[in-house]
Structures are given as C-alpha cells and as structure tokens.
Amino acid sequence: MELDTLTQSIGEWLKGTGPESDIVMSSRVRLARNLAHYPFVSRANEQEKTEIEKFLKDRIATVPVGKSLEYIDVGHLEEVDRQFLVERQLISREHADAQGARGVAIDGLEQVSLMVNEEDHLRIQCMHSGLDLKGAWEQINTVDEQIEKVVPYAFHPRWGYLTACPTNVGTGIRVSVMLHLPALVMTRQIEKVFRSLHKIQLAVRGLYGEGSQAMGDFYQISNQTTLGKNEEELIEQVGDVVPVLIDYERRAREFLIRESQQNVHDQVSRAFGILRTAQTISAEETMQLLSRVRMGVLLGLIGDVKISDINVLLVRTQPAHLQKLRGEELDTADRNIERARYLRQHFESSGGTTRSQIN
Amino acid sequence: MKCQKCEKAATFHITELEKGSVRELHLCEDHARAYLNQSEAAGGEPGEKEGGKSVGEILSNPLGVGQTADELALLDQKSCPHCEITFFEFRNQGRLGCPHDYVCFEKELEPLIANIHGSTEHTGRRPSRSPEGTEWITRVIGMRREIKDAISREDYERAKDLRDSIREIEDRAIGGGGKRFGIDAAPGTVPSSSSPVSNTDDISPT
Questions:
Q1: pTM, rounded to two decimals
Q2: CATH number 3.30.590.10 is the correct assignment for the domain at A3-252
Q3: Of the candidates B50, B121, B130, which has its C-beta nearest A155's C-beta?
Q4: What CA–CA distances, in Å, run from A100 to A40, A46, B114?
Q5: What are the boundaries of each domain within chain A?
Q6: Between chains, do B170 and A160 touch, taking CB under 8 Å as contact?
Q7: Pairwise CB contact (< 8 Å): A224 & B51
Q8: Beta carbons of A165 and B95 less than 8 Å apart
C-alpha cells in the first residue's frame, strides 16, 4: 500500500460522522488471538516470527474483509511511516517500536486493521466513527470468524482464547470509545468522573493508548477484564456508561454557556486566534487549542468551521503526517514552523470567524 | 530472606513492571499490605497497564499467603515442557511463553487470573471448528525445538521423524480435517480428503 495515498484521505475515526459524534469521536473493538502451534511473540525466535508472519499474512489474504485488504511490512518501514500509522491509530506504538518480522493489514476504508506479531500473533481492530460499538463488533466478529476457518487459534475450553498476557485471556476483547470531554475538563469534574469509572472496572487512557497522556481533552474508555463475561456483556459494560458521560459533558457545556459564556467565548476565540496567526507551534499546544476550538464550534461561538475540518487538522498536524504532507523529514523546530504555516494556510482558505455575538 | 523494611521474614515477593523496568520488593506481610494499599489508594498507578493491575501486584496478593521464600523459589523453577519458559521468567516479564503455559501453570495462574478478572471461566464465544480446544497442537512448539537439538547432535534420522510428525499435526490443525476446516488452506499443505483423521482428539502424546 502506498502510504502517500493514505495521507490524502482522513481515516474512519476522523470522519466526524455517526451517532453522538459531537462528543464520541470513535468506537473501537479489538480482539487478541494467537496461533496454537507457535510460541507467543515475546518467546519466539527470529525464524519463528518470520514463519508466523508469513503464515498469517497468507491466510489473511484469503479472507474477504470489507473493501480490499492491503498488507504492510512494518518491520521494513521507515520510522516516519511507522509513526504515521500510529498517528492514524492503525497500529499501536508498541508495534511501531518493536523489533523483528511484523506487519499490518489495513482495509481500504481504514476501518479494519490486523496487526501481525504485536504482543499477540494477531490483533484485529475495527473502528467506526461516532458511537457505534455494535456495528464495530458485528464487523470484527465476521472478520474473526472468517480467519478462524483458516487459522488454528490457541483456545482452551476453560480459559478461552489464550493470550501472551493473562490480562487479555478469555474473550481477548478490548472495547473502547474515544470521547472529547473539554467541558468536563474546564469545569474540573473530569477527575471525579474517572474515579467512578475505575470503580466499575473501566480504564481511562489518553488518545494514543496505553501510557499516553490525555492530550487535548480526548479520552479513551475501555473494559479492564476480558474473562467471565461474554463479548456482548463486555460491550454493554462500556456502552452503558457512554450515554451517562455524554449527558455529563452536555450539561457541563450548558453550564459553561449559562454561567460563564463571556469567559468561554474569550478562551475559544483566543485559541482560534493563536491557531490562525502563530509562526511556530508544538503538536501538544495545537491539539489543546484545536480541542478548545472544536468546543467553540459546537457551542456556536465560532462560525464557518466544520467539525470534520478540525478532526482532519488534529491528525494532519501530528509530526509524521506533517512530514509526509511536506514530503521531507523535518526536525522538531522545523516541524513547529511547518505546523504553524499549515494551520495559517488552512484557516486562510477555509475562513472561519469568531462570532461577536450569540443569542 | 528478611523484609526490606523490618526484621521479619519476607513472605511477599513483589515484582513491579513499570514501563520497561522491573523492580523487585521483598516484604513481610504487614509491609506488603501497606505497600499494596498505598498503590491502590494512588489509583493503582504503579505498573498499571492496559488491563489494569500489574501482574506483579497480583502475584503478591493474599491468596499467596503462607508461601515461603523456599516454596516460591521452587515454583519459580517450574518450566513449560514446550517453550521452556520458567515461572520465574513469566513473573519477571509478565508475559507467558506459549499457549501450553495455561495448562502446565494452570494451578499457579488460577489465583492470578481470578484476581485480574474476578472469574476463572470463559463464557464468551468459541471457535466453531475447535470448541474443545487446541491444546493438542501446542506439542509442535517443543518438537520444533527438539529438531534443533537433534541436528546439533547430528541425529538427522530423529530430526526427520520430528519434522514428519510436526507436518502431520499441522496438516490436521491447519489444512486437513475435512469439514472442520471449511476453506482450503494454502496450496500444497492440504492433505487429500481421504485423510483418515476426522477427530483431532485421537492423537496420543508422544
């Protein structure tokens, strides 16, 4: 697959469509699977890893998955290209940084990705825009059933699907939703929300998964346990809490408009101003400001900017995307200049105004 | 071994996995409890990973009370016949070596898994073609290693036998078995449909 063609598209989770997409960026389901006839990846030698990769690559190719599936040899990619796939959420950071034979198969719509030789031999992921866990589950389950016909999955009648880490054993499923919760952050309620989520066995992480900082008020909520409950119950466990969080965030947004509209309007306008005029800007600051502007648009404080545009900017201002778009490698300082240039250019051509007054 | 914080015997041996680094703690029951409570109060931060609690944290849970350092040392030496990982290596890395570990370390893993998931029984979906499990296939992991040993001993006869056995098991697991494996496997690996093997359970261990 030509990664450059991906640069021009935007990827499923940034489409900004689907139910509740003002708050729910994307819904994701992933399954961890292993072959019964090979050691787990961390215990496999180079030859075994190569055999595992070839075996799975060949089998995956026979499976009908959505729109054409393409295989990328991650082990032979340049660092910037691996980083690009991470920013796109098509592979994990661990997969990008790992050693040895490994790869990923991606469907044309960027909904399904199959990582080979990550922590487990096979990690299937399905991502849908907005709140659509059920749709993502149905799609991934179909893919999994197809693969199961041609691959001997390691399975034990008592323990279920066997995984390298006991924290994933059983269903091997991780269900997550990515939420944009700026108002809960601004009203300082976010910590309280997270503490209650931990109590009901849900994990909260930042935008780029395990160990990542929550940047720009984006958070992933996912199940912690994978054994004992079946797939539907685990999906429900995450799915049930999402409407509650949406409701909290909406109420916090209403509260902000009611109680401190001027202050909020000032904050989002300043954020927008910086994005349109800065001469050099870091990825972190960009994300933080885009998050504010995104809320400003949703609250009607900023006009003529589309939510999908902001979503696109969120990913295209990431380091690897910026370099791919520019067509050359740039160091941090040059990236910050290029990022500011890209943002100014984008807003000049697409317009966007801060409203002086709202009703 | 003495507790790192007092003069009592260390009965808890905690391995913390934190972003690539491993930290070992040897504590008496009181200090272990205090340590674990403190990490819980901090939101379970130390060693927290995708699944929540760290393996080390759980391995030191009160279900293990009564295990002396000697007993633990003995347990640490136990190893998987197929992938040869020792329980000690697993405790250190937090990753198992092969699917058979769930069988050979079943007793040791049970409290750990109960602690992580609050359950020890899979109730989700099962692979339609092997709901009874694929344990019988895992033998080839050890056999592949044995081939290397045989070749280094220049016992090519044995190596050839092993290779044939592996191929036979793999054919049944991957390509063969007729109706169980609905889709044809890669060309050349599919045994003819006259293969007498219809039930995968009939393979006796070597």
A1: 0.81
A2: yes
A3: B130
A4: 14, 7, 33
A5: 3-252, 260-358
A6: no
A7: yes
A8: yes
